[in-house]
């Protein structure tokens, strides 16, 4: 993992203990610039809800762990490239 990759990620405050994790390598007006929504829990852990990469949510004991996971997920997404969406099976129209 390249160290400069972490510097492309930035936490934008949303509240006292809530942030948006954004990728500065993507235009700000592009929805994919938001990588995750992050919240600090009462336990001190950080919970990330992945938005443009990955699925679901994950908890981290430190922000460093969160940033490293985000960098890895971004690298995986870039290596896969754009994926063709799965086709929707055709169904004949219902007859009245």
TrEMBL record:
Originating organism: Microbacterium arthrosphaerae
Name of the protein in question: Uncharacterized protein
